[in-house]
Amino acid sequence: MSTRLVIAALVLTACGGGATAEGRTPPTKGTKTKGPGAAAARVVETARPRPSPFTRTLSLNGTLDARDSVQVAAQVEGPITGVRVDLGDRVERGQVLARIVVSDVRARAQQFDAELAQARADLSRLEQLARTGDTTPAELERARTKIAVLRAQRAQTVVDLRDSTVRAPFAGAIARRHVAQGAYVRPGTPLFDLVAVDPLRLALEVPERYAPSVRVGDVVRVAPEVAVGRASPSDQGLAAPIVRIAPVVDPARRTFRIEAEVPAGAGALRPGMFVVGTIALGEVAGALRVPRQAVVTVLGRPRVVLVVDGRATPREIEMLGEEGADAIVLGVAPTDVVVTRGAGTLAPGAPVRASSEPPPTAAAEAPPTGAR
Fold first, then answer.
1. Partners of 317 in the beta sheet?
2. 26 within a domain of the structure (yes/no)
3. Residue 276 sits in a domain of what CATH number?
4. Is the pTM of this model over 0.70?
5. 45, 260, 296, 372: which is deepest, by most CB within 10 A?
6. Domain span at residue 344?
7. How many domains does the chain divide into?
8. Burial class (CB in 10 A: 0-12, 13-18, 19+), 240
9. 215, exposed or middle or buried, with CB in 10 Å at 0-12, 13-18, 19+?
10. What's the CA gap between 242 and 234, in Å, rounded?
11. Is residue 106 over pLDDT 70?
12. Which of 177, 195, 213 is the endpoint of a domain?
């Protein structure tokens, strides 16, 4: 009899009746329990992507060049007098820059005038003698040749007198003055460096993959490198139309050359200045705006973390650009829920809950009745 009672007690213990083998009271119906692997959902800040019109741009570095640049040199020999311009002066086409004293040229001109008058008188006399046969055709031809030579020599003095006044060949600015008043110069002696400063020329090397998107007449926004970043690339810089596109691609660099005419901008841009040129390549369909801090970089690739069915779900994206505190991206939808803070600390699949959602009730977290 006693043996049967012991066996009955063991059966009740194994079936959960009464106290457990460890002396604990089993949970009653409605008591909250958690399994050994359960974890509380982390509360995160979230936002939904917003549609944002975006123009894809290409930014390239380049150096501004003067459209025309020339070294004005002396054409005649003599001392410099009357220097009219100096470094930085703006000049117009034909404006006098300096004068060269050529008193010997004037003396030669007077000499040629006298010799030419005498040669014409000699020719007239020989022509009269030729009518009576008192001169030879050779003498008559020599007289005529002498007059032609004297005329050429006299014409050269006119050119030399004209070149003694140094004038600007085109409108521009003096980049350098090489001589001072009183200096003695000879033909070829540098006098001034003159550059055309408006418009300027900007040459850029464009990667070949953008060839279908770049055309003559497209606008390049040009700004000094130090100014880049102060405003949106589409809003800053001077508008410079593309005027030339190379018909070939450089096989070594895989680029093609374009040239744009840049307005000087009242002195803001100058030849030799390093600038950034931004070319608009067209509107991007499907571009969305998310907070910049929502974008994290993993192995060099940008991504965001979405909340999907209460779990952290990484999603790789394409970064198009930044505007203020926002990033313009492709790869998400307006209906997605994006983690905006601490996305880099969430493991894939981790339980999360948006801060805008109400916390779950105790009854919702409780396991079904009879769960172990």
1. none
2. no
3. 2.40.30.170
4. no
5. 260
6. 42-53+286-362
7. 4
8. buried
9. exposed
10. 16
11. yes
12. 195
